[in-house]
Design goal:
11 helices, 36% helix, binds adenosine-5'-triphosphate, binds magnesium ion, ABC_transporter-like_ATP-bd, ATP hydrolysis activity, ABC_AA/LPS_Transport, Urea transport system ATP-binding protein, transport
Length: 274
Amino acid sequence: MSIFQELSNRDRVFEFLAPAASPVDVRHGPILYLEDVSVSFDGFKAINNLNLTIDDGELRCIIGPNGAGKTTMMDIITGKTRPDTGSVWFGSRHNLLTMNEPDIATLGIGRKFQKPTVFEALTVFENLELAMAADKRVLQTLTARLSGEHRDRIDEVLKLIGLSQLRNREAGILSHGQKQWLEIGMLLMQKPRLLLVDEPVAGMTEQEMERTAELLTSLAGEQSVVVVEHDMGFVRSIAKKVTVLHQGSVLAEGTMDQVSNDRKVIEVYLGEGA
Ligand SMILES: Nc1ncnc2c1ncn2[C@@H]1O[C@H](COP(=O)(O)OP(=O)(O)OP(=O)(O)O)[C@@H](O)[C@H]1O
Ligand SMILES: [Mg+2]
């Protein structure tokens, strides 16, 4: 094996410098598992005995009225909020409740917040480059061969997010939708196993929404994707399995048709005036 091949096998060669997170083990079950999770804020139960299971490679949509606990659920998975009770596992090996936010991210859980946070003065390409550099596992001063690999990964992600033509333009000139895709691309640079996306299409045009539907659908399989969204047309266009949250618990789960015909779900949405 040549020295270049050795060096490019970074997980093995640099393990002693920056131990890579041990891979998520999904052989015996789901990629994400929440059991009886509860959290209260000043006595108010924002999450109330929540049980949720996401399979490896699944695209799951989470819907529910304002205040149902959707964002709080993501806060718990990513380590931003600690639940009062319950368990949260990533594969069968990683107890997320024993880990902090950066370690959970390094393990392969990427989160997209609603507001895009791209670096406007940098080009699209540079934004992706920077996202890769943020990965502790990648050492920057390596061989030309390895930076070639980095470039290949950036090209691959540019294609996925549909921004290849704009690679050398400043991110500041992008439309709102394009910025959202760039931010998803920045998450993808770290090759996450699970992507959490909170309200991705808010403020997007119809066309941008369609493109986002294609993007998220294409990511599932390689990644598991959990999408929280209020836009029902959008959810219907991508949905396989849908979970309805209400008052911090699962109210219903199933196909879009099943949940939208569920009496409890209809009551909750009618009660909201929707
Ligand atoms: N850090 C916090 N401190 C106090 N209350 C909080 C905190 N985070 C969330 N809450 C409350 O918990 C409840 C659930 O909020 P959450 O943001 O998870 O809902 P959501 O389903 O994401 O709603 P939306 O669809 O409006 O985004 C709300 O009543 C909210 O006010
Ligand atoms: Mg929310």
